[in-house]
Amino acid sequence: MVLLQIDWALLFEKLALIGAIITASLVIAMYSTWGERKVAAILQDRKGPNRAGPFGLLQPLSDGGKLFFKEEIIPNTSNKTLFILGPCLAMLTAMMTSAVIPWGNQIHINMFGIDRTVNLQIADINIGILYIFGVVSTGVYGIMIGGWASNNKFSLMAAMRGASQVISYELAMGLSMIALLMLSGSLSLKTIVEQQIQGSWWNIVYQPIGFLIFIICAFAECNRAPFDLPEAENELNFGYHQEYSSMKLGFYLFAEYINMFISSVIMATLYFGGYDMPFVNEANLSVNLAAIIGFVALFGKTFILIFIFMWVRWTLPRFRYDQLMNLGWKSLIPLALVNMFITGAVILWRQG
């Protein structure tokens, strides 16, 4: 009889890391709503939230309380099981993508009789990028199920738009990643970060076209303007969550901001060195101090990319649906293929 040996310390370590990442993602998503209003106010020359607490910092708590205590309405003609499953699935897939992201280097814990080295990554798997693409591709089911289960023609039409948009732009995003993988030779996000730390430059220097394609596709994957066609209120009322209220609506809204946060972290990891802090020699620092500096560096890069998401939303007008599809199929996919061929040619030239 084979007995299953459980490393309880490792299990507790991973559960604590999961809890910390989920909490941080929810808090950042919550205050991204405040940040977006402030960015919009700056661009439109007004103040933005300034009533609830100092500088309006309590406004996200007020909005969350409103959603939590609102009456929950489920349409009589809806498929109630799928109606509930849709927002839950959207929220679950948004959170799952963070499992393979390296949030920093190792930290050393030596207190209360505990002497452990903890990796700031839930799972370092050698197919990390494939895992992210797999989870992201299932996220569209949350939109599709919610739109179909609502039994509303506007919701269904918006859900079909969302599904088509995600499927179309995943192709260009995947092709842009192939060029990066040709350079790194690994699907592990940890390995990609370490290669950038050990090399002379970050991947953004070697793959500027790939990054441009990736960030445009990230806008479409997150349903962010100017690609927010599933939520085009001038055409489809409220979009795929037309019939939702209370925290079910809150789950859809939170999932969008969590997706924006995780997409920014992934771009910072793949193209901007992850937790690498430029001009800082980590060899001269203690393990814990280097980990803290790397964690702050990763979040600094992430917040800059989140600002770009918000800046673009309040700067560019929404695309028409035919323009959205033409950009994905006729521009980004051919450009990604050209970038992949050029990368392959440069690699062969260097090896020769």
Please render the helix and strand layout as text.
Layout: H1 8-43, H2 59-69, H3 80-96, E1 107-111, E2 114-118, H4 128-149, H5 153-184, H6 189-198, H7 203-206, H8 208-221, H9 233-236, H10 246-271, H11 287-313, H12 321-351
Antiparallel strand pairs: 1-2
Helix pairs in contact: 1-2, 1-10, 1-11, 2-10, 3-4, 3-10, 4-5, 5-8, 5-12, 8-10, 8-12, 10-11
Concise account of the structure shown:
The protein has 12 helices and 2 strands. The chain has 352 residues and is mostly helical.
Explained architecture:
It comes from Segetibacter aerophilus. It catalyses: a quinone + NADH + 5 H(+)(in) = a quinol + NAD(+) + 4 H(+)(out). Belongs to the complex I subunit 1 family. Its main location: membrane. InterPro entries: NADH_UbQ_OxRdtase_su1/FPO, NADH_UbQ_OxRdtase_su1_CS. Helices cover 66% and strands 3% of the residues. The protein has one domain (73-105, 125-351). With 352 residues, it is mainly alpha-helical. The longest helix is centred in the first third of the chain and has 36 residues, at 8-43. The model has no long low-confidence stretch (mean pLDDT 89). Helix 3 packs antiparallel against helix 4, helix 4 packs antiparallel against helix 5 and helix 10 crosses helix 11. It is globular and about 60 Å long. It has a two-stranded antiparallel sheet with strand order 1-2. It is built from 12 helices and 2 strands; from the N terminus they run αααββααααααααα.
